[in-house]
Amino acid sequence: MGDVLTIPVLVLNRHFEAVQLTTARRAFVLLYGDAAHALDDDGETHAFDTWRMLPVRAQDDAVPIVGGHLRVPRILHLHRYDRTPRLTVRLTRRNLMFRDAHQCQYCGKRPPLRELNIDHVLPRSRGGMDSWENLVTACRVCNLRKGWKTPDEANMRLARRPFRPKWSTCAQLLLGASSRYKEWDPFLKAS
Predict the structure, then answer these.
(1) pTM for the whole thing?
(2) What is the CATH number of domain 93-146?
């Protein structure tokens, strides 16, 4: 049951805009506490009392409860929350790797994730900052070969110039998702 409670659930604000992903555990708390309604495949909203009466189908994930099973909702609609998600992309190792498609920006290889590093194009020892425009994904071999030099000094070429990404809300939500459900598509396309 622990695995079922970690399934991602799409959360919509009161204007039906996708705002985040949460776990099934948190979704049940919001649903039971009447902070949100669950959406079924037809787009109908259900409070906890009506949701628990819905039958569990073969394609549904379910949590065992006294007297049967409770279907895990795929989408929650918050009643009072009307904010929209921020569109700035945080500078993190994960987001850098995603921007560079998990590919070394010097040799073009795609080694396993544990073999990838983050490299400062202008080394920190020379005043290089931690910024989108100065950080790239590099394999261990290329990162060691480059060392404290600039790419020109090391006679290495960047596959592409580093840039600050401008991902949509949809892309940011999918970054955090371990899986994606077809029920999410209409809401993610609108984001």
Answers:
(1) 0.60
(2) 1.10.30.50
